[in-house]
Specification:
Length: 291
């Protein structure tokens, strides 16, 4: 189990931002009878710093349902002075066949009731699923990595359930720090798919990846599509290559990628390029090698 507290800083480029409290609890469990299966629960709160009582520092232990809050916060039961995010996650590893599968499913704010969860399990949801699989190719090891992330908003902006996800939240309770997103980097109303392949050899590894990202899709359907018509999504495709090499005690890494983003922010097309060079030097004793 892990519990934490911290303070979020807001971007200096927008006036009026505060310094809210962020707190979280993550609990992971590995059943004895299912080795290498890890299941967990996470819960996180963002709250205004001013006027915090002792109980608010322990908000992660509050009930998940909102009907206990109805009398204080109206018919929806939603507390305007906090932003809650809860998730369940799992990871299962199969060393004998070189396979790892993992995933996470999250929702924002309180449930009205457990029946409400059954009726609308996809309300304000986000999810991630992925796997890694290794194969032998002679003396080399090949790793295949697949990942899917979805932060789409199912309801429209005009409905109570259609507000953007936890990144953009009223009362200065957005899930950001210094203007940077916390959590999934693709942002609200987005989805992404990633395919990567790496080959490991005695001196390091080399590989590449393909990635597609579509952003702000709820905004597209509500605002952009009625004006510009179909085929105007904000979508990006990226192709990259990367390598890591052992040079004496140093590890040298490099990565090069090219992206093309159509209708960035529904304004213009934009190409992007990335070139990264890294040097790493271990400071501890060398790791023991298996015979």
């Amino acid at each position: 189990a892990l519990i934490f507290w911290g303070r979020l800083e807001r971007t200096p480029y927008i006036a009026g931002g505060g310094r809210p409290l962020i707190s979280g609890l993550a609990v992971t469990y590995e059943p004895r009878w299912i080795p290498r299966l890890y299941v967990g629960l996470g819960r996180y709160f963002v709250q205004p710093w001013g006027g915090l009582t002792l109980s608010k520092y322990l908000a992660v232990f509050e009930p998940f349902e909102a009907n206990g809050l109805t009398s204080r916060f109206g018919p929806t039961g939603d507390n305007p002075r906090d932003n809650q995010l809860a998730s369940v996650f799992a990871r299962w590893v199969f060393p004998a066949v070189g396979l790892e599968i993992y995933g996470e499913w999250a929702r924002e704010d309180y449930n009205w009731s457990w029946w409400g969860t059954i009726r609308e399990p996809d309300r304000s949801q986000a999810y991630l699923v992925g796997l890694q699989k290794t194969f032998r190719a002679g003396s080399r090891l090949v790793r295949l990595h697949l990942e899917l992330v979805d932060l789409q908003e199912m309801a429209g902006f005009g409905t109570a359930a259609g507000a953007p996800t936890y990144y953009v939240h009223g009362n200065d309770l957005g899930y950001t720090n210094r203007g940077q997103l916390i959590g999934a980097w693709i942002g609200p109303g987005a989805d992404s798919q990633t395919l990567a392949l790496d080959v490991f050899h005695a001196g390091g590894r080399i590989g590449g990846y393909l990635e597609r990202v579509r952003r702000n899709d709820a905004y597209y359907w509500e605002v952009i599509q009625p004006v510009q018509g179909n085929w105007s999504h904000d979508a990006e495709i990226t192709a990259g290559v990367r390598q890591a090499l052992a040079v004496g005690p140093l590890e040298v890494t490099w990565e090069a990628a090219a992206s093309y983003r159509q209708n960035r922010d529904f304004i213009r097309h934009e190409p992007n390029f990335k070139l990264v060079l890294g040097l790493s030097l271990p400071t501890g004793p060398p790791a023991a090698r298996s015979p």
